[in-house]
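Notes to self after the Tuesday call (sharing in case useful).
The group wants a holo model before anyone commits to mutagenesis around the pocket. I volunteered. Ligand is adenosine-5'-triphosphate. Logging inputs and output together so the record is complete.
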Amino acid sequence: MQGENTDQPHPDAVCSIEIDDLPDGVIVADRTGRVLAVNRAAARLTRIDAGRAVGRDIRDVFPFRDHDGREWWKWLDPCGGLRTRTRQPECPVQLPGGPELLIAARLVRAPERGGDVVRVAITLRDAGARARLERSRADLVSTVAHELRSPLTSVKGFTATLLAKWNRFTDDQKLVMLETVNSDADRVTRLITELLDVSRIESGRLQVRRQVVDIPARVRRLIAGRVAAGEPEDRFRVEVRGELPETWLDQDKIDQILGNLLENAVRHGRGTVTIVVEPIEWGVAVSVRDRGEGIAPELATRVFRQFWRGQGRRRGGTGLGLFIVKGLVEAHGGTVTVQRGPEGGAEFRFTVPTGTPDFA
Ligand SMILES: Nc1ncnc2c1ncn2[C@@H]1O[C@H](COP(=O)(O)OP(=O)(O)OP(=O)(O)O)[C@@H](O)[C@H]1O
Ligand SMILES: [Mg+2]
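Result:
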């Protein structure tokens, strides 16, 4: 800011802003309660036409009441109270038969300190949106707590039993218990890793570190891993169609996307899993198909939501996999969809642009 004349407004500065431009509802009244102005958002939230409200008494046009039925304006009492009072903190109110709103006010005084109230500026917000957000946060907390509790209960139960009755079990029984403890501990770790991914996706902190990634090679590597872990080799088929362009992607994230889709095809689907990799105009498309029951078209957007799981939770996932897949694909600038595959089961198809090196 060196050398700038601070008395002059910057040529690009917006000098005034219309109250209709504001995202929150705004009502301005004088000290007696006569409405001076109502912006568009306030008219929308209260469903009261601004033209009908201006010039009238706020108590008649906007009879806001709190949960206990008290009249908000009377309670605000702009002319009463201490002369230093300038703010009325946000609180929930309602108009008769209307939705819940969050209302806050500022008492404009002249002179500014200790003077008489000349105007009251009121802001309104939709309380429903915030309540929905809070409810979804509360749901998230209870789901996470529930998901963490069941493996931890088994870890605690088996370790306590082993400690108390070590000599009463055979080696084989001990082994089974320790294997269960081990796999439940893995489940907790996996859930926590997934939750961290979810929070990165939600806060937009996901970083894509680009390098040349050979998608068919990544697919084959993942399959080799699954086969080494005991799955039959003929369960998977890889088809590469045409000449693929060079793709600059985040290899770990591509592995995670492919790993999730393969895991789902094996766990939720049935039969041979076919992975088709093909070039598209601006990048590469990968389809993962199985021959299971597939996903009903009306559920096609729901499967990508957090914690959404199909009927019969016996297959024991947390419902975060596809949410993470979508976040990772979109971080690359691609898209992911689901439809019925040519062999009847689910077909998940994602696209990624060729990308450019980070330093380009
Ligand atoms: N290939 C598929 N065939 C049929 N249903 C599927 C398929 N893939 C996913 N689904 C359904 O979509 C739901 C959500 O999948 P998602 O991967 O998000 O969660 P999950 O596999 O249950 O758990 P997680 O991946 O977090 O361990 C699954 O529970 C399942 O009902
Ligand atoms: Mg999954």
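Two things stood out.
Confidence is low (pLDDT under 50) at residues 1-5.
Residues 262 and 281 are 25 Å apart (CA to CA).
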